[in-house]
């Protein structure tokens, strides 16, 4: 699911857990994305 600023803000407002990981390269970012993590910092 693609998140936008509004969906992240809604998650925060509803006290939902937001998951975020750092990926240092494309293959890792692709795997993290496929795992369903909410936000990825590349």
Using DSSP, what is the number of strands? Answer: 2
Please give the count of helices: 2
Rg over CA atoms, rounded to whole Å, is 11 Å
Q: Strands of the largest sheet, in order across it? A: 1-2
The helix/strand series, from N terminus to C terminus, equals HEHE
- Broad shape: elongated
Class from helix and strand fractions = alpha+beta
Could you describe the largest sheet, including whether it forms a barrel?
A: 2 strands, parallel
Question: What share of residues is helical?
Answer: 40-55%
Q: What average pLDDT do the residues reach?
A: 91
Distance between the ends: 18 Å
Compute the number of structural domains: 1
- Low-confidence stretches at least 5 residues in length (pLDDT < 50)? none
* Beta-strand residue percentage: 5-15%
Structure commentary:
The chain has 42 residues and is α+β, with helices and mostly antiparallel strands. It has one domain. It has helices spanning 5-13, 26-34, and strands at residues 20-22, 39-41. The protein has a two-stranded parallel sheet with strand order 1-2. The longest helix is centred in the first third of the chain and has 9 residues, at 5-13.
């Amino acid at each position: 699911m693609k998140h936008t600023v509004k969906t992240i803000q809604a998650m925060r407002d509803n006290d939902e857990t937001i998951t975020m990981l750092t990926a240092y390269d494309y293959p890792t970012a692709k795997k993290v994305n496929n795992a369903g993590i909410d936000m990825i910092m590349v």
